[in-house]
Amino acid sequence: MFEKLVDYASRQLELDATEITPDSTFESLGIDSLDVVEMIMDLETELGVELDMEDQKITTFQELADFIESKLN
Q1: Rounded to whole angstroms, how far apart are CA atoms 36 and 64?
Q2: What is d(CA 63, CA 46) in angstroms, rounded to the nearest whole number?
Q3: pLDDT the model gives residue 56
Q4: Catalytic residue among 7, 32, 42, 52
Q5: Is 32 a catalytic residue?
Q6: Alpha-carbon span 47 to 40, nearest angstrom
Q7: Are the C-beta atoms of 49 and 13 separated by less than 8 Å?
Q8: pLDDT of 16-64, one tens digit each?
Q9: pTM value?
Q10: Per-residue confidence (pLDDT) for residue 53, from 0 to 100
Q11: How far apart are CA 25 and CA 59, in angstroms?
Q12: CA dist 11 to 50, 52, 63, Å?
């Protein structure tokens, strides 16, 4: 899932994939909350799962990958 997120960020947000690590925070890469919401909506459509982020404190790519994987299982 982490690799899928990196691929998405490099394509849609025009980030350098080599700069994205599991511990990269969205803020450190210049990803704002609107970008995160758009990414979640796109992933929901692609994966066919609802990702309710309302009570989640997710700040890194790995945290998001882990959260998505937990929803898929």
Answers
A1: 10
A2: 19
A3: 87
A4: 32
A5: yes
A6: 10
A7: no
A8: 999 999 999 999 999 998 999 999 999 999 999 999 888 889 999 999 9
A9: 0.90
A10: 84
A11: 5
A12: 22, 24, 20
